[in-house]
Write a structure and sequence with these properties.
Length: about 250
């Protein structure tokens, strides 16, 4: 069974999440709550929870401040946030679990299931560091992305991506190093996530890095040759947009 701690400075936020947990997450058998950082730290030290639901903004402090005050983590973290879309993108880039307020029961159940799987503490800290870096960056889109695979977690620079290819419910990342990384998320999710100034969906099966295009071939219905030598199909309906984007990029 799982012991949890809800950290949120708003009473209705704590009570609402507690009600959802009681109704939809039977594996959580004990729930504490805290309205500020110091109270949360005391509960963590005394009760040693397995799972932390941590609000990003807590009074005048940030939830990250709490994590910095804990020397060793023996718990998983699910962030809760009411931040606008840019923050959600930062969470997705870092691969961390988050719940966007108002919290839905389905999203809560999925996040708790993921959190109950044992994680590598060092990797988790790297993900949080990446999240902080992305949230504090002046750059429109983060430059590093965390990809969760069957083997573990990989951090890659977005400039290293040549193209992404759909493989059913999976996405295969083709990198400059000739490495391929398969991720259990569909291509549409990465289409909305990666910087639209440099990444474009040119086919139902392909999302390419426009900076990695070597040549466009008109024959055979049209296709693209990437700098690594791979050929990528381009759909007829996206051809004009692709050519416009390439002219703009150059």
């Amino acid at each position: 069974m799982i012991r949890a701690l809800i950290v949120d400075d708003e009473k209705y936020g704590r009570e609402g999440l507690l009600a959802l947990i009681k109704k939809y997450c039977p594996q959580i058998n004990q729930v504490h709550s805290a309205s500020n950082i110091s109270e949360a730290r005391e509960i963590i030290l005394c009760e040693e929870p397995d799972l932390l639901f941590l609000d990003i903004e807590i009074n005048s402090e940030l939830g990250f401040d709490l994590l910095e005050k804990i020397e060793s983590w023996n718990f998983e973290v699910i962030f809760t946030t009411a931040h606008p879309k840019y923050a959600v993108r930062a969470f997705k880039y870092s691969g961390l679990d988050y719940l966007l307020k108002p919290i839905s029961a389905d999203e809560l159940v999925r996040a708790v299931k993921r959190a109950t799987k044992k994680r590598n503490d060092q990797i988790h800290k790297q993900q949080i560091e990446l999240l902080l870096q992305n949230l504090n960056s002046d750059v429109k889109s983060p430059q590093t992305i965390c990809l969760s695979t069957l083997e573990g977690v990989e951090f890659i620079e977005t400039d290293e991506i040549i193209y992404c290819e759909a493989n059913g419910a999976y996405t295969v990342f083709n990198l400059k190093s000739n490495k391929k990384i398969t991720v259990s998320r569909n291509l549409k999710e990465y289409e909305s996530l990666l910087d639209e100034d440099f990444f474009m969906r040119i086919h139902n099966s392909f999302l390419i890095n426009l900076k990695e295009v070597k040549k466009y071939i008109k024959s055979d219905g049209g296709y693209v040759i990437m700098k690594n030598g791979d050929t990528v199909s381009i759909s007829q309906k996206r051809k004009d947009d692709f050519l416009k984007r390439m002219r703009y990029l150059s």
